[in-house]
Amino acid sequence: MHDLQMAHSNWIDQITPQTISGNAGFCQVEHIQTGVISFTFSGLLDIQLIHPFLALIDKVMLQLSEHDQKAYLLFDTLQLEGITLKAQRAVFLRTARNELPVGLIEIHCVINQPLYRRFIRFLRRFNPRLRDILFFHANQTEALFQLEMGLQVESQDPRGTELKHESITTEQGSLRYFQSSPQVLCCENNGVTNAEMMQHMIEVNLRYLSIQRRDFGQGMLIIDSRKGRHCTLEAYRILRSDLGEATMQTDDHLVIITPRWNKAVGKLVLALLPNLSFRLSIVGSLENALDCVRISPQALLTPKEKKEPFWILPLRWLQSKKIIAVQAAEIEKLKQERERFFQETDHLIGDILLHKHLDDVHQVPDSELDSPFQEVYESLYMLQNDYQEHFSSLQQEINERIHAEHHAAELSQIKSRFLGSISHELRTPLSAILGFTNLILNGSTGEINPKQTHFLQRVKDNGLNLLALINDVLDISKIESGTLDLKFESVEIDSFLKNLLEPLRMTALTKQIQLKLEIDPEAPRSLVIDSDRLRQIISNLVNNALKFTEKGSVMLYYRKGSSTAFPVILEVKDTGIGISKADQKKVFEDFVQVHQGAYAGVGLGLSICASLAHLLGYQIELESELGQGTCFRVLIPLVSLQH
Predict the structure, then answer these.
(1) What pairs with residue 573 in β-bridges?
(2) Where in 357-476 does DSSP place strands (E)?
(3) For the whole model, what pTM was predicted?
(4) Model confidence over 228-261: pLDDT tens digits?
(5) ∠ Cα 567 572 574 (to 5°)
(6) CA–CA separation, 538 vs 582, rounded Å?
(7) CB contact at 8 A, 270 and 280
């Protein structure tokens, strides 16, 4: 970005044309005529473009303040295609915290998009002074014409000659004085009035008012606060303490120019100035203020000093009736505007709730935008704009997640098919190895010595462990791919459980652990189950209990449950090492070993139990404490009782 060439005197005329570029748009800056800086936007106004643009604006504002010069700004957005949400927020933050310099006279915006107009109007809520100096135009010709009119008015100030020797400037604001005639003094207040400015204002005003009373019999003072922000608390204290009863006399006329809150300003002035006999006028423009001070001396008399003829009272009564009629018409108009507001907001909010795109949202007519509900409409449109961008980003994120889930599911299917194929391929040669090992151990090939027997037994044990691992992997692949077949049949539970524990008693006997079975006589004697899968679940749980128990017992309970949804419970309880609270949440995950290295296994047993229980409609509960043992409960649903 080129730097602005700013000389100490008349630096605005030294601005050279330049271009600020972003990712998808640019802004052309040029000085088109004396005191007028033009900004023309094209393409997309994004965060990469808005940062250098705001930096340039800050530079212009700083130079206006430093050189005490005046300028008009012209923004042309006819070629602007859009404004990103981040750019809008950046403008909001800058507008809310920045003070506008005194030399910034007016801002003219060439806009034909209703959305951009609402955006600019919304900015005025963050900086009230923009309400007085911001103007909209449909094309550049209209804007330039308005600028010419403003430049002509600026060159011929209706307030008269500026008394520069009386002016004062501080970091927060300034005071300027004008005299259109010796009878009238105009004080212009800019920015924040602090204690220093208030003291200076009181001294100058009292000095000129005393001269006016001496030469003309009355004082006329205009306070122009259109560009003022507010007064500090210390300034109010100085005003209240330094003004006495002689501040404003009976024939004096005080005119205050304020763009809004006329009644509040009037009450504040009457509260600060104790002498209520002077004439006070609160107006909204400089023209009205000058009209007030040009009236005849007779009109300056207060109502108490006027001698009204007897026929004035009927006229006043007729005038009051007319005023009441006008007020009634205004009230009726406000009621109609309120009804239209309810109708328009119903359509607008309905479209927002229906997730409609911003272009399809109900557009409020331009005639309604100038109503007292203008800020509400603008807030709703800005809300819809933010919501639409958030909804679009959320939808994009959802689509990406769905795509990722589909891709993960495809990979899982490929993995399951691969594991199934590998498991089948591994079991065939492993079965042959175990078969030949058994033949040799049984003496089918001749006598073998004890050392060979020991080695072959190690081969057989490790082969069986490997076969169990391959079977577990095959079961997991079948469960994940959905190819596991379930076969339900009616089973006598007593014989089923006794046969299930029989091959496990040798392990318990070797470790000198009691392995017991208890059957509740009130529990059902037969169940409709997949015996192979339930045997796999209970065998895994009992094997785990035997593996992690060094002394004590392992109990298998079959009892009646207290829940109607799960009337039967199979419970495996041991007196082993137990599981901590933190590890209980992850014991059912694949390839998770709580006590890694201390015990054999790869961490698939409990994972298979949980997956099979889910397929069968069972639930598995876990209770355990470190050093106190573990209890696994398999809750069997009501459907298993049906024959």
Answers:
(1) 555, 631
(2) none
(3) 0.37
(4) 877 887 887 777 776 544 466 667 888 888 876 6
(5) 145
(6) 24
(7) yes
